[in-house]
Amino acid sequence: MKTVPLQLITVELGNGKQGVFVGGPLLSEDNVKNNGHIEDIWFSSVQDIPNELTVDELIELVSNMMDRSQTTVQ
User: Fold this and answer.
1) What is the pLDDT of residue 70?
2) CA-to-CA distance for 2 and 29, rounded, in angstroms?
3) How far is CA 47 from CA 1, 10, 33, 73, in A?
4) Secondary structure class of 53 (helix, strand, coil)
5) Helix, strand, or coil (residue 63)
6) Which region among 1-5, 33-37, 38-42, 48-52 has the lowest average model confidence (pLDDT)?
7) 24 DSSP 8-state letter
8) What single-letter DSSP state applies at residue 16?
C-alpha cells in the first residue's frame, strides 16, 4: 500500500474553539531542535471541495493553492 506522510496541526483560539488542519509534515523532532520554530502563519479562505476526493487529489489541490499563493503574496 502506498503511504503519504501527513501531520495534524491543532489550533486553539482564546475563546476555546479548536480547529484541526491536515497537511504535509511541517515539524519534526529534528527541525524543532534545530531552530524550526514557526515564523508566521496564515489561513486561506474556506474552499468548497468535492466530498469524494482521494488523499492524493487533496494533496495536489493544496499544493496548487500553495504554489499560487507564493506567487501572489508579497
Assistant:
1) 57
2) 24
3) 29, 19, 34, 18
4) coil
5) helix
6) 33-37
7) S
8) S
Nearest partner of 63 among 23, 6, 19, judged by Cα: 23
Q: Are 25 and 64 in contact (CB under 8 A)?
A: no
8 A C-beta contact, residue 6 and residue 57: no
What is the grid cell recorded at 43?
489561513
Retrieve residue 36's grid coordinates: 524550526
Query: What is the C-alpha separation between 3 and 59, in angstroms, rounded?
Result: 12
Q: Are 23 and 44 in contact (CB under 8 A)?
A: no
Give the Cα separation of 24 and 65 in Å (integer).
Answer: 13
Beta bridge partners of 11: 19
